[in-house]
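Sample pair:
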Amino acid sequence: MPVVFLLSIALQVACAVHVVRSGRPLYWIWLILIGSYLAVLVYVLIAVLPDLRHDPRGRKAASKALQMIDPQRRRRELQRRLELSNTVDNRRHLAEESLQLGDYTNAQELYQGLLTGMYVTEPDFMLGLARAQSGQGDHVAARRTLEALIQANPGYKSSDGHLLYARCLEELGESEAALEEYRVLADSYPGEEGRFRYGRLLARTQRHAEAKDVWQAQIRRAELMPGYYRRKEQPWLKAARLELAQLGEP
């Protein structure tokens, strides 16, 4: 059966399902079946695209699709905004997007430019700078930035900042100090990364029995969580299972 014919059927079925779910008049189904590609195109333009614009899930899906096709699109838009108006908010948004894209050099320059005047000790900017420094492998500078952040903002709390500090200690070879930080994160971090990294550092320091206990408890705990949580944290749970398998645990 020709591929073009199969594609036509698939598109017609998808549009017919949309007709039923959206509560549109059923005569649309007959038009779609009779008109093939032309009817599908008309229906998409008249019904599907407007629905996507008004449906938060549709807008989110469309945004993800655009991001996959052109990952630099949002950064170009933010760069244009900054060129039009050199505000703190526009620089912050561009710095955050640079971090997301892994452009740590540009992110560092932007955050350093933000940390002046009344924002010289802004904790979110200092954390962003530390993330950029760590992303470039400069864990000494990242640690120094995080320590300066806490000194200037003793009441500031950030699970991501705490995790980054523990990772810096680990990268710098300060295993015992890193384990102390990870031990706290194993109970407080809102996700599985803290628990996984705690177990992994225990294993790296030859404390295999403790590492097994951490990973097994992590997996048991995750089994009690809602499905969406397990899906979101799947990479860390999978990593924990792989580490257990290497230690001979089922």
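The mean pLDDT is 88.
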